[in-house]
UniProtKB/TrEMBL annotation:
One of its GO terms (cellular component) is periplasmic space. It comes from the Bacteria. This is Probable sugar-binding periplasmic protein. The keyword Signal applies.
């Protein structure tokens, strides 16, 4: 009898091990740079500890442009992945098609509504139903500066555009590339939205970008922005065209360049190169944008696959993502801040602590807005229309006058 019991216990252990091994998620994402992959590993390992396997579908390409193309191909072929990293308006578009799994029960169980900021919920919910699990909050209006170069310049971190140009001049004199940039439309757009915020402030950003106001898009403040963009281009090196964002970060890390304008996923690159904030690099809000935040939040959507086993794995993944301890473990590596407001900042470095404090301040002060370049300002078509004009102008293919005529036209046509 005892032997039979032991044998059946062994069989049930085996059976549950097999069930565990079979339960897995296929995840489409674009986290392929060093810091991103390190953060993704935190998630993979967390799921492994919960018996959920991981099938990786990485699609390289900053900001997820190529990943979204790959997703459309998978869905068209009738084979959507289990879980997909997604941003802002893209989440809404897929939700509108009715293909995303409903996360209401889990959200209620874990109390998401009480801890996820309203601005993020606006993209995690559709028609009052939860359809996405936010993993973080990034923001785009940051500047990453090589500390040794800053010290050698004898400069204080700049607080406005004039200060920025003065610092870049000093880097020029040191014989390094003043501003590391990757010439890809989304990176051009990321730089542009910081300059828009710096020159015009949050009211102007809202008017021009969120409200797509033609006068703002073609007016005097925007002229200043495009003039600044032309001037900033003079501080790039000759090989900026097409460069990936993490290679631009590497230039700052290695001291070949003085600074990079980029969202705080760049911090993940500095950290994965063993750099310490305040010692090796300095993080500041893009000069002139202190007190305001352009945010983007990576979220995971779970496609409705009509399969109970897959749904169980999807729910485990969504639950893991919203776990407060996971939010700390993941976001301290990724460079982002938690998607929950109840997570302490104790384990975050100075840049992370600043990011968390800035987010609270901006949310309370009404100076928090979605990043256009990262899918939280306008639907994709409008975003792409802005990128086209900004990139052509940055590359010298059109003049500032032409950009000011084309920008409102292109945006209107894309709406
Ligand atoms: C952003 C995304 C970040 C980071 C970055 C560069 O859109 O939110 O998580 O991956 O692109 O790829």
């Amino acid at each position: 009898m005892r032997r039979i019991l032991m044998a059946s216990a062994a069989i049930s252990v085996l059976a549950s091990a097999t069930a565990r091994a079979e339960e897995s998620v296929e995840v489409l994402h674009w986290w392929t740079a060093g810091g991103e992959a390190a953060a993704l590993n935190v998630l993979k390992e967390d799921l492994a500890s919960k018996g959920v396997g991981w099938s990786d579908m990485p699609v390289a390409g900053g900001s997820g442009v190529q990943a979204m193309t790959a997703l459309r191909a998978r869905v068209t072929a009738g084979d959507p992945p289990t879980a997909v990293q997604m941003l802002g308006f893209d989440i809404r578009d897929w939700a509108e098609m009715g293909v995303l799994g409903n996360l209401d029960d889990l959200a209620a169980e874990q109390g998401w509504a009480e801890v996820i900021p309203e601005a993020i919920q606006a993209f995690s919910k559709y028609d009052d139903h939860w359809i996405a699990a936010p993993v973080n909050v990034h923001s785009t209006n940051w500047l990453w500066i090589n500390k040794a170069a800053l010290d050698a310049a004898g400069a204080e971190p700049p607080e406005d555009m004039d200060g920025l140009f003065a610092m870049l001049d000093a880097f020029n004199e040191q014989g390094i590339t003043p501003l590391a940039h990757g010439g890809q439309p989304w990176q051009d757009g990321t730089l542009w939205e910081s300059v828009v915020l710096s020159r015009g402030g949050m009211d102007f950003y809202r008017q021009a970008v969120l409200d797509a106001d033609a006068d703002a898009l073609g007016g005097d403040t925007m002229r200043q922005v495009f003039d600044d963009m032309s001037k900033l281009r003079e501080y790039f090196d000759g090989s900026f065209s097409g460069r990936d964002w993490n290679l631009a970060s590497a230039m700052v890390i290695e001291g070949q360049a003085g600074a990079q304008q980029m969202g705080d996923w760049a911090k993940g690159e500095f950290l994965s190169a063993d750099q310490v904030p305040g010692e090796d690099f300095v993080c500041i809000r893009f000069p002139g944008t202190q007190g305001s935040i352009l945010f983007n939040s990576d979220q995971f959507v779970m496609f409705d696959l009509g399969d109970d086993e897959k749904r169980s794995a999807q729910l485990k993944m969504a639950a893991a993502v919203e776990d407060p301890a996971f939010q700390v473990a993941f976001n301290t590596v990724k460079g982002s801040v938690p998607a929950r407001t109840d997570v302490p900042d104790t384990d975050f470095d100075d840049c992370g602590k600043k990011g968390m404090a800035d987010l609270v301040e901006a949310a309370a002060g009404g100076t928090l807005a979605g990043s256009l370049a990262h899918g939280h300002g306008q639907p994709s078509a409008v975003k792409e229309a802005v990128f086209d004009v900004v990139t052509q102008h940055l590359n010298g293919q059109i003049t500032t006058d032409e950009a000011l005529t084309r920008l409102p036209q292109a945006v209107a046509a894309a709406q």
